[in-house]
Protein backbone atom coordinates (compact mmCIF):
# COMPACT_ATOMS: atom_id res chain seq x y z
CA UNK A 1 0.00 0.00 0.00
CA UNK A 2 1.53 3.31 -1.03
CA UNK A 3 1.89 5.99 1.61
CA UNK A 4 -0.89 8.53 1.13
CA UNK A 5 -0.28 12.19 1.93
CA UNK A 6 -3.13 14.68 2.19
CA UNK A 7 -2.06 17.86 0.48
CA UNK A 8 -2.16 21.02 2.56
CA UNK A 9 -4.52 23.83 1.48
CA UNK A 10 -2.81 27.15 0.94
CA UNK A 11 -4.86 30.36 0.88
CA UNK A 12 -3.55 33.79 -0.10
CA UNK A 13 -5.90 36.44 1.33
CA UNK A 14 -4.36 39.72 0.13
CA UNK A 15 -0.82 39.73 1.50
CA UNK A 16 -1.41 37.14 4.26
CA UNK A 17 -0.01 33.62 3.77
CA UNK A 18 -1.83 30.88 5.65
CA UNK A 19 -0.65 27.29 5.53
CA UNK A 20 -2.51 24.36 6.98
CA UNK A 21 -0.24 21.61 8.29
CA UNK A 22 -1.60 18.05 8.07
CA UNK A 23 0.12 14.97 9.43
CA UNK A 24 0.74 12.32 6.73
CA UNK A 25 -1.32 9.15 6.93
CA UNK A 26 0.99 6.26 7.83
CA UNK A 27 1.16 3.23 5.58
CA UNK A 28 -0.67 0.17 6.85
CA UNK A 29 1.29 -2.63 8.50
CA UNK A 30 1.99 -5.81 6.51
CA UNK A 31 -0.38 -7.60 8.89
CA UNK A 32 -3.18 -5.18 8.03
CA UNK A 33 -2.41 -5.41 4.31
CA UNK A 34 -2.86 -9.19 4.23
CA UNK A 35 -5.27 -11.88 5.37
CA UNK A 36 -3.19 -14.17 7.57
CA UNK A 37 0.20 -15.86 7.19
CA UNK A 38 1.26 -17.64 4.01
CA UNK A 39 1.38 -21.44 4.09
CA UNK A 40 4.12 -22.51 1.69
CA UNK A 41 2.99 -25.64 -0.20
CA UNK A 42 6.63 -26.33 -1.02
CA UNK A 43 8.01 -26.28 2.52
CA UNK A 44 10.22 -29.28 3.26
CA UNK A 45 7.63 -31.11 5.44
CA UNK A 46 4.82 -30.48 2.93
CA UNK A 47 7.00 -31.64 0.06
CA UNK A 48 8.07 -34.77 1.92
CA UNK A 49 4.48 -35.65 2.81
CA UNK A 50 3.35 -35.12 -0.78
CA UNK A 51 6.16 -37.29 -2.13
CA UNK A 52 5.67 -40.10 0.40
CA UNK A 53 1.89 -40.71 0.53
CA UNK A 54 2.31 -44.38 1.48
CA UNK A 55 4.47 -43.65 4.53
CA UNK A 56 2.42 -44.01 7.70
CA UNK A 57 3.87 -40.74 9.01
CA UNK A 58 2.96 -38.59 6.01
CA UNK A 59 -0.61 -37.61 6.92
CA UNK A 60 0.31 -36.55 10.45
CA UNK A 61 3.34 -34.59 9.28
CA UNK A 62 1.23 -32.74 6.74
CA UNK A 63 -1.58 -32.06 9.20
CA UNK A 64 0.57 -30.95 12.13
CA UNK A 65 3.46 -29.25 10.32
CA UNK A 66 3.12 -29.02 6.54
CA UNK A 67 -0.21 -27.20 6.74
CA UNK A 68 1.18 -24.50 9.06
CA UNK A 69 2.73 -21.16 8.09
CA UNK A 70 6.51 -21.69 8.25
CA UNK A 71 9.25 -19.23 7.36
CA UNK A 72 11.19 -19.82 4.16
CA UNK A 73 14.98 -19.62 4.50
CA UNK A 74 17.12 -18.12 1.74
CA UNK A 75 20.87 -18.64 1.39
CA UNK A 76 23.45 -18.07 -1.32
CA UNK A 77 21.86 -17.82 -4.76
CA UNK A 78 23.02 -16.09 -7.92
CA UNK A 79 19.42 -14.99 -8.55
CA UNK A 80 18.32 -14.19 -5.02
CA UNK A 81 16.19 -11.28 -6.16
CA UNK A 82 14.23 -13.47 -8.56
CA UNK A 83 13.85 -16.33 -6.08
CA UNK A 84 12.58 -13.99 -3.36
CA UNK A 85 10.28 -12.19 -5.79
CA UNK A 86 8.77 -15.50 -6.87
CA UNK A 87 8.07 -16.60 -3.30
CA UNK A 88 6.65 -13.26 -2.20
CA UNK A 89 4.60 -13.10 -5.39
CA UNK A 90 2.96 -16.43 -4.62
CA UNK A 91 2.01 -15.23 -1.15
CA UNK A 92 0.77 -11.93 -2.54
CA UNK A 93 -1.45 -13.71 -5.06
CA UNK A 94 -3.27 -15.34 -2.14
CA UNK A 95 -3.38 -12.13 -0.08
CA UNK A 96 -1.17 -13.77 2.55
CA UNK A 97 1.83 -12.55 4.54
CA UNK A 98 5.11 -14.41 3.87
CA UNK A 99 7.81 -14.80 6.49
CA UNK A 100 11.34 -15.00 5.08
CA UNK A 101 14.75 -15.60 6.64
CA UNK A 102 17.88 -14.00 5.20
CA UNK A 103 20.75 -16.37 6.00
CA UNK A 104 23.90 -15.72 4.03
CA UNK A 105 26.47 -13.84 6.10
CA UNK A 106 30.07 -14.73 5.29
CA UNK A 107 31.27 -17.19 7.90
CA UNK A 108 27.78 -17.82 9.26
CA UNK A 109 27.54 -20.23 12.21
CA UNK A 110 31.20 -19.44 12.81
CA UNK A 111 31.30 -21.00 16.27
CA UNK A 112 28.59 -23.67 15.98
CA UNK A 113 30.02 -25.11 12.79
CA UNK A 114 26.98 -27.09 11.58
CA UNK A 115 25.51 -24.48 9.20
CA UNK A 116 28.64 -22.94 7.74
CA UNK A 117 28.74 -21.19 4.40
CA UNK A 118 27.38 -17.86 3.30
CA UNK A 119 28.51 -15.23 0.85
CA UNK A 120 32.14 -15.27 -0.19
CA UNK A 121 32.94 -11.71 0.84
CA UNK A 122 31.53 -8.55 2.38
CA UNK A 123 30.98 -7.10 -1.08
CA UNK A 124 29.15 -10.20 -2.27
CA UNK A 125 26.90 -10.06 0.79
CA UNK A 126 26.02 -6.44 0.17
CA UNK A 127 24.98 -7.23 -3.39
CA UNK A 128 23.01 -10.28 -2.18
CA UNK A 129 21.08 -8.54 0.59
CA UNK A 130 20.26 -5.52 -1.60
CA UNK A 131 18.91 -7.89 -4.25
CA UNK A 132 16.94 -9.77 -1.58
CA UNK A 133 15.25 -6.55 -0.45
CA UNK A 134 14.57 -5.46 -4.03
CA UNK A 135 12.94 -8.83 -4.70
CA UNK A 136 10.31 -8.04 -2.08
CA UNK A 137 9.76 -4.50 -3.29
CA UNK A 138 6.65 -2.78 -1.98
CA UNK A 139 4.75 -5.99 -1.22
CA UNK A 140 4.06 -6.83 2.45
CA UNK A 141 6.44 -9.28 4.11
CA UNK A 142 8.24 -10.17 7.34
CA UNK A 143 11.98 -10.84 7.26
CA UNK A 144 14.19 -12.33 9.97
CA UNK A 145 17.76 -11.22 9.37
CA UNK A 146 20.65 -13.62 9.97
CA UNK A 147 19.84 -16.02 12.83
CA UNK A 148 22.70 -16.44 15.34
CA UNK A 149 24.67 -13.54 13.85
CA UNK A 150 24.78 -11.48 17.05
CA UNK A 151 25.22 -14.35 19.47
CA UNK A 152 28.00 -16.11 17.60
CA UNK A 153 30.90 -13.83 18.61
CA UNK A 154 32.95 -16.05 20.93
CA UNK A 155 35.32 -17.37 18.26
CA UNK A 156 35.58 -14.13 16.22
CA UNK A 157 38.19 -11.39 16.45
CA UNK A 158 37.36 -7.69 16.66
CA UNK A 159 37.82 -7.09 12.93
CA UNK A 160 35.44 -9.90 11.98
CA UNK A 161 32.87 -8.71 14.52
CA UNK A 162 32.95 -5.15 13.17
CA UNK A 163 32.60 -6.40 9.60
CA UNK A 164 29.56 -8.41 10.67
CA UNK A 165 27.96 -5.46 12.44
CA UNK A 166 28.54 -3.29 9.37
CA UNK A 167 26.92 -5.89 7.09
CA UNK A 168 23.88 -6.20 9.33
CA UNK A 169 23.47 -2.44 9.53
CA UNK A 170 23.74 -2.25 5.74
CA UNK A 171 21.01 -4.89 5.51
CA UNK A 172 18.64 -2.83 7.66
CA UNK A 173 19.29 0.20 5.49
CA UNK A 174 18.61 -1.69 2.26
CA UNK A 175 15.30 -3.11 3.52
CA UNK A 176 14.20 0.35 4.65
CA UNK A 177 15.09 1.72 1.22
CA UNK A 178 13.86 -1.05 -1.06
CA UNK A 179 11.12 -2.88 0.89
CA UNK A 180 9.04 -0.21 2.66
CA UNK A 181 6.14 -2.53 3.54
CA UNK A 182 8.37 -5.17 5.14
CA UNK A 183 8.80 -5.59 8.88
CA UNK A 184 12.44 -6.53 9.51
CA UNK A 185 13.71 -8.19 12.68
CA UNK A 186 17.41 -8.59 13.40
CA UNK A 187 18.04 -11.84 15.23
CA UNK A 188 18.71 -11.41 18.95
CA UNK A 189 19.75 -14.89 20.03
CA UNK A 190 17.91 -16.72 22.79
CA UNK A 191 17.28 -16.69 26.52
CA UNK A 192 20.22 -18.93 27.36
CA UNK A 193 22.99 -17.36 25.31
CA UNK A 194 23.93 -13.68 25.68
CA UNK A 195 23.12 -11.30 28.55
CA UNK A 196 20.25 -8.91 27.65
CA UNK A 197 22.33 -5.74 28.02
CA UNK A 198 25.09 -7.17 25.84
CA UNK A 199 22.62 -8.25 23.19
CA UNK A 200 21.02 -4.80 23.26
CA UNK A 201 24.42 -3.20 22.59
CA UNK A 202 24.99 -5.57 19.67
CA UNK A 203 21.56 -4.95 18.21
CA UNK A 204 22.05 -1.22 18.49
CA UNK A 205 25.41 -1.44 16.72
CA UNK A 206 23.83 -3.62 14.00
CA UNK A 207 21.15 -1.04 13.14
CA UNK A 208 18.08 -2.32 14.97
CA UNK A 209 16.68 1.21 15.01
CA UNK A 210 16.43 1.03 11.22
CA UNK A 211 14.28 -2.10 11.56
CA UNK A 212 11.01 -3.08 13.18
CA UNK A 213 12.85 -4.88 15.97
CA UNK A 214 14.44 -8.24 16.74
CA UNK A 215 13.69 -11.96 16.92
CA UNK A 216 14.48 -14.42 19.71
CA UNK A 217 14.65 -18.20 20.11
CA UNK A 218 15.20 -18.89 16.41
CA UNK A 219 16.01 -22.59 16.01
CA UNK A 220 16.02 -23.05 19.77
CA UNK A 221 13.71 -24.51 22.39
CA UNK A 222 13.19 -22.01 25.21
CA UNK A 223 9.58 -21.57 26.30
CA UNK A 224 7.57 -18.65 25.04
CA UNK A 225 7.40 -17.18 28.55
CA UNK A 226 11.16 -17.30 29.05
CA UNK A 227 11.74 -15.95 25.55
CA UNK A 228 9.33 -13.05 26.09
CA UNK A 229 10.95 -12.28 29.43
CA UNK A 230 14.39 -12.24 27.83
CA UNK A 231 13.21 -10.10 24.91
CA UNK A 232 11.59 -7.61 27.27
CA UNK A 233 14.88 -7.28 29.13
CA UNK A 234 16.73 -6.70 25.86
CA UNK A 235 14.14 -4.14 24.83
CA UNK A 236 14.39 -2.35 28.17
CA UNK A 237 18.12 -1.98 27.58
CA UNK A 238 17.28 -0.55 24.15
CA UNK A 239 15.03 2.04 25.76
CA UNK A 240 11.85 0.15 24.80
CA UNK A 241 12.36 1.30 21.22
CA UNK A 242 11.97 -2.02 19.41
CA UNK A 243 9.40 -4.76 18.92
CA UNK A 244 10.14 -8.47 18.90
CA UNK A 245 8.95 -11.84 17.61
CA UNK A 246 9.48 -15.30 19.10
CA UNK A 247 10.16 -18.59 17.31
CA UNK A 248 7.73 -21.11 18.85
CA UNK A 249 8.20 -23.86 16.29
CA UNK A 250 9.80 -26.38 18.67
CA UNK A 251 9.45 -24.92 22.16
CA UNK A 252 6.42 -26.82 23.47
CA UNK A 253 8.50 -28.54 26.16
CA UNK A 254 11.07 -25.82 26.64
CA UNK A 255 14.82 -26.39 26.56
CA UNK A 256 16.78 -29.18 28.23
CA UNK A 257 20.02 -27.27 27.73
CA UNK A 258 20.87 -28.90 24.41
CA UNK A 259 20.50 -27.04 21.12
CA UNK A 260 21.33 -29.64 18.47
CA UNK A 261 18.48 -32.11 17.80
CA UNK A 262 17.71 -32.87 21.46
CA UNK A 263 15.25 -35.62 22.35
CA UNK A 264 11.96 -34.98 24.10
CA UNK A 265 11.06 -31.71 22.40
CA UNK A 266 7.60 -30.73 21.17
CA UNK A 267 5.91 -28.43 18.67
CA UNK A 268 5.00 -25.02 20.07
CA UNK A 269 1.89 -22.93 19.56
CA UNK A 270 1.11 -22.19 15.89
CA UNK A 271 1.99 -18.82 14.37
CA UNK A 272 -0.15 -15.92 15.53
CA UNK A 273 -0.20 -12.19 16.09
CA UNK A 274 0.36 -11.30 19.74
CA UNK A 275 0.95 -13.90 22.41
CA UNK A 276 3.24 -11.68 24.49
CA UNK A 277 5.29 -10.61 21.47
CA UNK A 278 4.41 -8.76 18.29
CA UNK A 279 4.12 -12.19 16.67
CA UNK A 280 4.78 -15.82 17.53
CA UNK A 281 6.22 -17.47 14.42
CA UNK A 282 7.49 -20.82 13.19
CA UNK A 283 10.85 -19.60 11.95
CA UNK A 284 12.77 -22.87 12.14
CA UNK A 285 11.08 -25.60 10.09
CA UNK A 286 10.05 -28.42 12.46
CA UNK A 287 11.71 -31.60 11.23
CA UNK A 288 14.70 -29.84 9.67
CA UNK A 289 17.90 -30.98 11.35
CA UNK A 290 20.11 -28.69 13.43
CA UNK A 291 23.15 -30.65 12.25
CA UNK A 292 24.66 -34.10 12.42
CA UNK A 293 24.15 -34.42 16.13
CA UNK A 294 21.72 -35.41 18.87
CA UNK A 295 18.99 -37.80 17.74
CA UNK A 296 19.82 -37.19 14.05
CA UNK A 297 23.57 -37.87 13.88
CA UNK A 298 23.46 -38.57 10.15
CA UNK A 299 21.19 -35.74 8.99
CA UNK A 300 22.97 -32.56 7.83
CA UNK A 301 21.83 -29.16 9.03
CA UNK A 302 18.75 -27.90 7.21
CA UNK A 303 17.74 -31.28 5.80
CA UNK A 304 14.25 -32.57 6.59
CA UNK A 305 14.05 -35.77 8.64
CA UNK A 306 10.56 -37.30 9.04
CA UNK A 307 11.63 -39.00 12.27
CA UNK A 308 12.57 -35.66 13.80
CA UNK A 309 9.19 -34.30 12.73
CA UNK A 310 7.22 -37.22 14.22
CA UNK A 311 9.13 -36.96 17.49
CA UNK A 312 8.14 -33.29 17.75
CA UNK A 313 4.52 -34.22 17.07
CA UNK A 314 4.51 -37.10 19.55
CA UNK A 315 6.63 -35.38 22.20
CA UNK A 316 9.33 -38.07 22.27
3D shape: globular
Flag low-confidence runs: 1-26
Biggest sheet layout = 8 strands, mixed
CATH class: Alpha Beta
Q: Determine the structural class based on helices, strands and strand pairing.
A: alpha/beta
Q: How much strand content do the residues show?
A: 5-15%
Classify the fold: give the CATH topology.
Answer: TIM Barrel
What does the radius of gyration come to? 21 Å
- From the structure provided, what is the oligomeric state, counting identical versus distinct chains? single chain
Strand order of the largest sheet: 3-4-5-6-7-8-10-9
Report helical residue fraction. Answer: 25-40%
Please outline the helices and strands.
Blueprint: E1 10-11, E2 18-19, H1 44-51, H2 58-66, E3 72-74, H3 80-93, E4 99-102, H4 122-136, E5 141-145, H5 158-178, E6 182-187, H6 196-205, E7 213-216, H7 224-237, E8 243-247, E9 272-273, E10 279-281, H8 306-314
Parallel strand pairs: 3-4, 4-5, 5-6, 6-7, 7-8, 8-10
Antiparallel strand pairs: 1-2, 9-10
Helix pairs in contact: 1-2, 2-8, 3-4, 4-5, 6-7
Description:
Its EC number is 3.2.1.-. The active site is at residues 148, 290. It holds the Pfam family Glyco_hydro_6. It is an enzyme of class 3 (hydrolase). Keywords: Carbohydrate metabolism, Cellulose degradation, Disulfide bond, Glycosidase, Hydrolase, Polysaccharide degradation, Signal. Helix 6 (196-205) links the parallel strand 6 and strand 7 (213-216). The chain is an alpha/beta fold and 316 residues long. The strands form 2 sheets. An 8-stranded mixed beta sheet has the order 3-4-5-6-7-8-10-9. Strands 1-2 form a two-stranded antiparallel ribbon. It has helices at residues 44-51, 58-66, 80-93, 122-136, 158-178, 196-205, 224-237, 306-314, and strands at residues 10-11, 18-19, 72-74, 99-102, 141-145, 182-187, 213-216, 243-247, 272-273, 279-281. Residues 1-26 have low confidence and may be disordered. The chain is globular. Helix 4 (122-136) runs parallel beside helix 5 (158-178) and helix 6 (196-205) crosses helix 7 (224-237). 32% of the residues lie in helices and 11% in strands. The longest helix is centred in the middle third of the chain and has 21 residues, at 158-178. It has one domain: 1, 4-beta cellobiohydrolase (TIM Barrel, Alpha-Beta Barrel), CATH 3.20.20. The protein is built from 8 helices and 10 strands.
